[in-house]
User: Fold glycine oxidase from Paenibacillus crassostreae.
Amino acid sequence: MVRKADVIIVGGGVIGSSIAYYMSARGMKVILLERDRLGSQASNAAAGMLAVQAEITEAGPMYDMARASRALFPQLAMDLKELTGIDIGLKRKGMLRVAATEADVGEVQRILDFQKKEGERAEWLSAKQVRQQEPGISSEIQGAMFVEEDSHVDAPELCYAYAKAAAALGAQINEFTEVKSLLYTQGRITGVVTGEEELFADQVVVASGTWSGPLLAQAGLTCPIYPVKGECFSVLSHSQLIQSTIFSDGCYLVPKKGGRIVVGATMIEHSYDRRVTIGGISKLLEAAKRILPDIVDAEWEQAWCGLRPQTMDGLPYLGEHPKLKGLYVATGHYRKGILLSPITGKLVADWAEDKSEQVLSLASFRVDRHQNDPSEEEVMSL
Amino acid sequence: MVRKADVIIVGGGVIGSSIAYYMSARGMKVILLERDRLGSQASNAAAGMLAVQAEITEAGPMYDMARASRALFPQLAMDLKELTGIDIGLKRKGMLRVAATEADVGEVQRILDFQKKEGERAEWLSAKQVRQQEPGISSEIQGAMFVEEDSHVDAPELCYAYAKAAAALGAQINEFTEVKSLLYTQGRITGVVTGEEELFADQVVVASGTWSGPLLAQAGLTCPIYPVKGECFSVLSHSQLIQSTIFSDGCYLVPKKGGRIVVGATMIEHSYDRRVTIGGISKLLEAAKRILPDIVDAEWEQAWCGLRPQTMDGLPYLGEHPKLKGLYVATGHYRKGILLSPITGKLVADWAEDKSEQVLSLASFRVDRHQNDPSEEEVMSL
Amino acid sequence: MVRKADVIIVGGGVIGSSIAYYMSARGMKVILLERDRLGSQASNAAAGMLAVQAEITEAGPMYDMARASRALFPQLAMDLKELTGIDIGLKRKGMLRVAATEADVGEVQRILDFQKKEGERAEWLSAKQVRQQEPGISSEIQGAMFVEEDSHVDAPELCYAYAKAAAALGAQINEFTEVKSLLYTQGRITGVVTGEEELFADQVVVASGTWSGPLLAQAGLTCPIYPVKGECFSVLSHSQLIQSTIFSDGCYLVPKKGGRIVVGATMIEHSYDRRVTIGGISKLLEAAKRILPDIVDAEWEQAWCGLRPQTMDGLPYLGEHPKLKGLYVATGHYRKGILLSPITGKLVADWAEDKSEQVLSLASFRVDRHQNDPSEEEVMSL
Amino acid sequence: MVRKADVIIVGGGVIGSSIAYYMSARGMKVILLERDRLGSQASNAAAGMLAVQAEITEAGPMYDMARASRALFPQLAMDLKELTGIDIGLKRKGMLRVAATEADVGEVQRILDFQKKEGERAEWLSAKQVRQQEPGISSEIQGAMFVEEDSHVDAPELCYAYAKAAAALGAQINEFTEVKSLLYTQGRITGVVTGEEELFADQVVVASGTWSGPLLAQAGLTCPIYPVKGECFSVLSHSQLIQSTIFSDGCYLVPKKGGRIVVGATMIEHSYDRRVTIGGISKLLEAAKRILPDIVDAEWEQAWCGLRPQTMDGLPYLGEHPKLKGLYVATGHYRKGILLSPITGKLVADWAEDKSEQVLSLASFRVDRHQNDPSEEEVMSL
Assistant:
């Protein structure tokens, strides 16, 4: 076991694993620390939508970042397959954001106008056109926005592939390793303390999702992150019930390989409870039946849930600690962790290499945006 | 591996395993053959209700047999625990057959009158009394019949315990062994042919549930048996949501150990398809929520299904082949296999010992009741 | 549910599923019948080696067929991914057939000479060269034959992808459907009888592996097939312990995606018993440790087993019934079912289309090679 | 959700759950907090031996406590069954501590002498007597100590039953709830802070096993606890291969219900890594085969591991905080958590009720035995 590296990454979810991959790819010596198993929290629970259009409905840095990140996936999928043999299941069959009622039509069309204005290929389909394209969809649907470029991946495979690709490039992966505290001296990070030992590096990245808060607090940073529990289930059928992702107010349906569909997701704020409830499943089932009546004949596969790391303003924390050189933060990606994982990995690798040119404006994601400016003494006295 | 025994039992479900146990307990040398794993079909899928009162609503030989069998469970539970260490989870906390609507009240009260006439302890509870006894039950319920003696067991444990008790008493258990045909000569059974070898015994018992037909047909017996698929799911909670079994038209809820509840069951006739469908789960979920609204907070555990072996007149086939001495049939128990397993095991053991005195009238269960009398030549020429 | 098709395929393993795919791809209407789940027997249990060189050590029709089939995989992998989204994990990193002792060296070199003579790219590596290429291999190894073109796939994914691709092309897949008998009239097949109904087609393919015998016997064909049980286990590690497949006398190690290694396989003839034994695991563990000492640090994943369908002469049965037009047989592929699945699917599709030109000599695989010529009357009188 | 109770217990393993049960049984209002699932760490991984004689080979407070605790099990088993329906699988079939070599004979006989001196029923069996009693044991065994009163339970069932019994008696169980810090004022504990809220109680019990250290450190207590990883596997057979527990230097074999045997356990100090390794399984397999050669025919079930909480002197920490009234510690039970769980639960309930009479001498278990006496100020200033 190596105890000294160029960079130590805290958190083996999709964000931490992506960072480990991009840094290893640039020749840095990486140690990736995960307190449980790789991807065992939010990352493996995700449906894997790269849903720039479904969830981001206003212009701004998040929208720009999402588009930039989505564009990285085709090459990424090939690179990860080459390095690890793992297929991340990238599928670009578009997304239908359906209007279930007359009242929804206006809202969906507003989003459509925004997408078009931003230069995305998106179009309105009438109820009849929707059913021509997806014959299984309920005749109750009033119409839909169709976004041709929308795509999705297998979230557990993506997280696993990042980590395994990092390992193939020389990274050391330590599962079941909890970081207790940070080591630093004279305004520079120097390493971390785990349950068993001290590990040293010039750079440390905190990417622990919902569990990032306490570690950052030790460094004087107030980055409030809270969990939003999401329950999902999946069904199987021999033939494909739908071709595109179907997105509505009550649920979304993501068609995976081999006739599988993932149905998600409930949103329960501030719950660390990872039990799937009868109420949650029941709500999703009813919503899915309303949109896709034929789903009743599909086979039940399984149910699961995950905790997405949410922030007060809905934006992730991305950046270097203002006072502790070498300590980077990349967390709070909420429901966009899968989508934003490549751009996040790339950005952190850029910072570590001190690359100055940055196309994206990152001011909105500053790690110290939620705090009363701590004096340097405060940080140092921790 | 022994190839000669006193008796060969074909089918390692709860009926075949019970017979193996009772025969072994009387000193007979038993070989139990199961084509897959013990209990892998209907037996492990059952909710384990010993529901004399819920399902049998008319006097007759089935009712008598059910009551006689239920009475065997307390001693049986102790004997199986002693021999195998397995607790079959016998729990006698009564059963509430609820009337969900005004219209149901009449039907439930008719069943209640029948139970009382037959000397069972059963009583009518008003809506208020129902909720005093089970505070979680919906205020929509109009009343209920309460049967104090109703009990239930853990079905998978029961089947397993029978087989393991038989093994402890010397029986040989061969899983993954399919019987291809019967061996007989001069009007006597002499053994069976499996996929790999011939096995010999003076007595053969066919107890293969839904799969019994073809083997019996080889012996000239027409015993039509068809599958009725049943889907179930289970939930977990730390505290007990209900004390008694709740039985309604749409579903039943059986409270198991440790706060677990089994919710069952759909009825899909003539389906061998063992996939659990979204439609099935959805129906049960809605029915369970109507009766026990608090179930929405319980945790989802799992879903499964089983194929119950049904006959044309709803009665099992129990008895000796009319022309082939030593060939016994014990199958077609439909939803009452768990309940009737002890009496069935005892009866078959009695026959094998030629015990003449029989308290129960078995004429209704004759194995040749569904056929044009085959001549002896027909049987022999097979 | 459709009850009339161009072809009915009996058996949803890798062979039946491949046939379903190739026939569907040519526009035939296919019904695929499987008594349990797709691939639930030998197919999902395989390690997925496309091991022309490891197991076939003599020239002949089997060797020719194996090479022809292996050549189909690269295009097949792309086609299945396109149709189903499923990646079959085709990986071409070569195979090392190691000589563990001085005594083995001669035998391995004999095989090497044969391979070279047949035009395969194969070379001898000294002990030192072996460890340069695969540093984890034990220093006890004396040398190895390296076959650069050797490749492997994920067997469960392959079977699943064939079936799902067939479904995407219009095939109907019926799981949990057991075929009881064949229907024919005047020397032509007309359909099959399942547990629940009659299904009709002009062509029927029997591809039921170990379970094919009884159905073929009904048609007067003696095609003895017996099971050879094989146990396997798998391990996980973050970094790749080996790059190529390692093949020795005691076991083989196949490096799968994400650092997984499959270790196989025991060979227990005439056993239908699907339980994994302590003895089997123990033998494989010891053999794997001898070849790859570092495997002790890898993580235990799981153990499983499958039943491979073997024939008396080690060759599959491939061809049309000599008397019953339209009844095809494709079974008995033993340990080569994965490798031979594409060529088998293609051949059967050719026959069904009456394509006369056949590059391969199939006389050795005739379905009636093991029987006294049955008269047409015998077949018809069944 | 209740936020105020008489006592808050931190840790839902077998120790915390036992305390929750005994306190609830005395009418206290209990909140049990577990950061993951009940029993998900060491408790569910244990083989369940109540092995007073196997592991404790010297007189002292640990020996006295172990005997006192073992004596509580028969009544406890009945009480838990009554309250929850859960059978904890208490089985008293004795234990054979075998001497595998001549050299071992002396050591085993020394332990035997000690046991006899302390008044335990224990006897020496010659090699021949061992095989008369357990015919499956290897003929290599030189003899054994037989302890008739030795017994065992199903460890996962025990932990679950404690918690469910507590819930049945009114306790509130919060899984997925991590305690971040303690609340106290003026030398008295007042509650805890979880990831989401503050919870209040007059008494707090820390029973978090390997994870207790940081929380206790917050209260100024130095209670070093480190994990000792233990790997196990289990096998199945239809008939019982052994009747008694077999204990040797290399492994132990514990016969569970239904023909199951648990084989344990490796000992890897200071490892938080919960992966089961090939090396660990391999060692246990070899040791088990040496003692019980027939185990090769048994069926592989599964492998798992757990982290046992060990202390510097091998004794648990049991007692009240010297300066913070109402803060109790009960942790560090290492391999004896199952055995000591009832006496621990009873003791903590006694303390909470201020029962002065204590039969056992607890000085050896003092919570402050490993520290330089902290001044009250130090504690308060945290």
